Amino acid sequence: MTDKVTLAVRSVAGDRATVRIEGARVGVVLDGTGQTSGERAAMEAAIRTAATDAGAQEVRVVVTAERTARRIIAVASGKGGVGKSTLAANLAIALARAGRRVGLVDADIYGPSQPRLMQVEGTRPTAKDKVLDPVPTPYGVPLLSMGQLVDADRALAWRGPMVAGALGQLVEADWGATDTLVLDLPPGTGDVQLTMVQKYKPAGAVIVSTPQDLALIDAMRAIDLFDKAGVPIIGLVENMAGYACPHCGEVSDPFGSGGAEAAAARLGIPFLGRIPLTIAIRTASDAGEPPAAGNGPDAAAFHDIAALVDAWLKER
């Protein structure tokens, strides 16, 4: 029976399993490193079934796992309405397409939009031992958002400590083999943002702004927040930069032009690139089809920015 049981267990778990047999009793040590709790539970059940079918009368499975080193990229802005969440979703997807194992945390707790952007509206995460399991998305980037836990039309009248506690559950979820978390922070520079960056210490921050002066003033406040928290600035992104008329092709700049790049040069931080103001990006985002998931012309800007972020991470 010994060889039969061992082969049966290995056929399910491969080298992840170490098998010890004493008579009709079988002990299995399963290496669950890099798996979610659901994946570990499924493999444990399959091992028990395989060993029992091979003749074992008693099967004990012990699951071990090494802690996965994981880095957080914070996507932030000093104010709302500058396209931060759209940038965060597309950055996560582009980084995943570049080979990183990426998860996305929608920390914009009062205005969560990632469930729609990532085409998983109406889904709810499960939990095991009070630890949340991220929700898979069609784009290979698992997601957790407060928008998956409360009704879409419900206002959250929460104070800072409650918000920080809720966001902590999202960040401390069972992210499995994820090596990079993109954190879509709420707009502003208040207590919630400071608590998050101090407690979870991102590897770096991407700041999003439109070209106009008012948005840049608030972006400077976001940069100052990260400086105070000791978080490096990966770079500044200029969103809604230039609008090409779909009828005549003429390009106009309703929000100005080049302001973010000039601000980055003045502050001595990298300028990561521009995202154009296009109807296609807006309609695709509303439909839950992030441009970075495809290969169209609107995808290029997001992939170029992701390449710079990926290079920054590799250097560190």
Question: SSE layout and pairings?
Answer:
Elements: H1 2-13, E1 17-22, E2 25-31, H2 37-53, E3 58-64, E4 71-76, H3 84-97, E5 102-106, H4 114-117, E6 127-128, E7 131-132, E8 143-145, H5 160-171, E9 180-184, H6 191-200, E10 204-209, H7 213-229, E11 233-239, E12 243-244, E13 251-252, H8 259-267, E14 271-275, H9 279-286, H10 299-315
Parallel strand pairs: 2-3, 4-9, 4-10, 5-8, 5-9, 10-11, 11-14
Antiparallel strand pairs: 1-2, 6-7, 12-13
Helix pairs in contact: 1-2, 3-10, 5-6
Strand and helix order: HEEHEEHEHEEEHEHEHEEEHEHH
Q: Roughly how many Å apart are the termini?
A: 51 Å
Secondary-structure content class: alpha/beta
Question: What's the shape?
Answer: elongated
Give the integer mean of the pLDDT values: 84
Helical fraction: 25-40%
Q: Radius of gyration from the CA trace?
A: 23 Å
Give, in spatial order, the strands making up the sheet with the most strands.
8-5-9-4-10-11-14
- Uncertain parts: none
Number of DSSP helices? 10
Q: What's the total count of β strands?
A: 14
Quaternary organisation: single chain
Main beta-sheet annotation: 7 strands, parallel
- Residues in β-strands, percent: 15-25%
Textual characterization of the structure:
This protein is α/β, with parallel strands linked by helices. It contains ten helices and 14 strands. The strands form four sheets. A seven-stranded parallel β-sheet has the order 8-5-9-4-10-11-14, sandwiched between helices. The protein has a three-stranded mixed β-sheet with strand order 1-2-3, covered by helices on one side. It is elongated, with a radius of gyration of 23 Å. The mean pLDDT is 84.
